[in-house]
Design a protein that fits this description.
Layout: H1 13-24, H2 28-37, H3 43-50, E1 64-72, E2 75-82, H4 88-100, E3 106-109, E4 114-122, H5 126-143, H6 145-153, E5 157-165, E6 173-181, H7 188-204, E7 213-221, E8 228-236, H8 248-264, H9 266-286, H10 291-302, E9 312-317, E10 320-328, H11 342-350, H12 356-379, H13 383-396, H14 403-412, H15 420-432
Antiparallel strand pairs: 1-2, 3-8, 4-6, 4-7, 5-6, 8-10, 9-10
Helix pairs in contact: 1-2, 4-12, 5-7, 8-9, 9-10, 9-12, 12-13
């Protein structure tokens, strides 16, 4: 394509597909056929998917798997997970089973406070601004009464509004820093609506010189360091033994050391925390929450000390192995896709229609389980043995292999290291025979 497309959004769905297929693909007919292959045969359901975002042309499917045997605070869960990466669901399920036989996961929501800010510049005297904000703060509450009414009825609403002086970091920069409780809602629209009212009052009620106060923007923050859930597992060291853990004491010591390395070494911490997010993101997507917001907030939290560090921690204490994590998770169980996407509703029902706080606990347990599974592999057999066994199917699917050839390949690599090159070589050997 050599020039911009004008009026694309006004085209019909078929017109958009025809344009894309004609401009971007050598085989226009095959491209259109592939696009339509992934349409849902239920037209009403397809229209629902089409309206989730703009310029929809087809559906992009990801597997929905389940990890059973999660014992969380004495209650069993089958946890839905949406992810494309091999071995993640299997690892989570394996860790869940392991800990279900050792007391399960203990979880606790520590706080649920969310944040929004009005960012503005003020060139006058700080004392004058302080007096002005103190004077109009009651109006922030009264003017948003209609917005917050239903939320307040559920026990939520505006918690606090503070004036923050940030002029030491940027000339003339101040904030209205507001905190909210949004109960079972993710709360983004609620918070942003309140903030825009705050911004209008801040600007319109001012009796300053022209251009003395300039509102830049008002927006919620995905950094929620006071919306925290804790997940923990523990057991006597002697009970850690299984087919992979021959020496529980040695395993516990190596495991704790591996976590401490992630606490002090950012290069390791990033991959360590990515493993945690494998479990967290998969459940967040399955339950219709915003995994990008969760990722951004979690990684900011991992850097709160000024150095990026491990989200999880481990210790040996009084003969016990203890592994835990405290993590920010701003989740919702009402609104957004939770009321629209059939499989999101399916996932919530599978989990027993949890509250937002209960979902925080389930998601945190999935993240900790994933982290345990990864560290157990790393400190025992190595990460590739289990991962590549699960990845074997993906490699086989790249070939035009028959049912019998697939069987031969799987049998051959039962006791051999799996690599893409090794599988290709063996497949060629089979074909030559």
């Amino acid at each position: 394509m050599t020039k911009a497309i004008t009026g694309f959004s006004r085209l019909t769905k078929d017109e958009k597909i025809d344009l894309i297929a004609g401009k971007c693909f050598a085989d226009k007919t095959s491209a259109i056929a592939l696009i339509k292959k992934y349409w849902n045969s239920d037209q009403q359901l397809q229209q629902l998917h089409d309206e989730f975002i703009e310029n929809t042309i087809t559906n992009f499917y990801l597997p929905l798997g389940v990890a059973p045997n999660f014992l969380i605070n004495g209650q069993h869960y089958i946890v839905p997970m949406v992810i494309e990466e091999s071995s993640v669901v299997a690892a989570a399920a394996n860790a869940a089973k392991f800990w279900s036989e050792r007391g399960g996961f203990k979880t606790e929501v520590i706080s649920t406070e969310k944040v929004g800010q009005v960012h503005f510049l003020f060139t006058g005297e700080f004392e004058k601004l302080q007096d002005y904000v103190a004077e109009i703060t009651p109006k922030f509450h009264s003017a948003t009464d209609a917005i917050t009414k239903n939320m307040r009825a559920r026990g939520g609403g505006i918690i606090d509004i503070k004036l923050i002086d940030k002029t030491s970091t940027l000339a003339n920069y101040y904030q209205l820093h507001a905190t909210f409780e949004t109960k079972d809602s993710m709360g983004a629209n609620f918070i942003n609506s309140c903030l825009e009212v705050f911004a209008k009052i801040l600007r319109d009620e001012a009796d300053f010189e022209a251009d003395e106060l300039n509102v830049i923007m008002s927006i919620l923050s995905n950094y929620v360091p006071n919306c925290i859930v804790r997940a923990e597992v523990r057991c006597p060291i002697a009970e850690l033994n299984d087919k992979h853990i021959i020496d529980p004491q040695k395993f516990a010591e190596n495991f704790v050391t591996a976590v401490k390395i992630a606490e002090i070494e950012p290069f390791r911490a990033v991959t360590h925390n990515k493993g945690i997010m494998n479990g967290i993101d998969a459940v967040v997507v399955a339950t219709g929450n915003d995994f990008r917001a969760i990722e951004a907030g979690v990684h900011a939290y991992a850097s709160k000390s000024g150095v990026y560090s491990s989200l999880s921690h481990a210790e040996i204490k009084d003969g016990e192995f203890v592994f835990w994590m405290e993590i920010p998770l701003a989740l919702g169980t009402v609104g957004g896709l939770t009321a629209l996407h059939p499989l999101v509703k399916f996932s919530h029902e599978m989990l027993g229609k949890p509250s937002a706080q209960k979902l925080m606990e389930i998601v945190a347990a999935a993240g900790l389980a994933q982290n345990f599974a990864a560290l157990r592999s790393l400190t025992t057999t190595g990460i590739q043995e289990g991962h590549m066994k699960m990845h074997l199917n993906n490699i086989i699917n790249q070939f035009d292999a028959s049912k019998e050839e697939r069987k031969q390949i799987r049998s051959h690599f039962t006791s051999r290291p799996v690599s893409h090159a090794a599988v290709v070589e063996y497949f060629e050997t089979i074909r030559q025979k």
